[in-house]
Amino acid sequence: MAENVRRMHATPEKVWKVLSDGWLYPVWVVGASRMREVDDEWPAAGSRLHHSVGLWPALIDDYTEVLESAPNRSVTLRARAWPVGEAQVKITLRPVGDETDVAILEDAVAGPGRLVPQVARTPMLKWRNTETLRRLAFLAERR
Q: What is the torsion angle, in degrees rounded to the nearest 10, for the CA atoms of residue 32, residue 36, residue 42 and residue 48?
């Protein structure tokens, strides 16, 4: 499991507004290229984002599903990018005064990505999610 934490100069409500706008997903999630559809219920449990990952023209169309959702506190996702595999991602928001500590806990849970040894997988996920949190902060702090 790879965990990253970043303090954002935004309230949990402001961060949640970004997380709740499924159309912004490829703006802050490293690797997501475009949105194709967002369920009206997003980010309620069971709702999905239909996205593409990769670089054009080699894009993979797949989806991310919400497993658990606690507004302004946390969301747990199952992100798919077959044939690479699936990852479980938990994003937690913890208020710190007018700011928020945002944590991402992620790991591969299915497919070939799961075959990569943990010792190699964790640093790659940490690197990716450092940039993901940076992008999320840009959006949340400027809303």
A: -80
* AA letter at 13: E
With left for phi above 0 and alpha for psi between -120 and 50, is residue 85 left, alpha or beta?
A: left
- What does the pLDDT read at residue 56? 84
| Distance, CA of 17 to CA of 22 (rounded, Å) | 10
Distant-in-sequence, close-in-space partners of 128: CB < 8 Å, separation ≥ 6: 30, 31
CATH fold for domain 2-141: Alpha-D-Glucose-1,6-Bisphosphate; Chain A, domain 4 (3.30.530)
- Would the pTM count as exceeding 0.85? yes
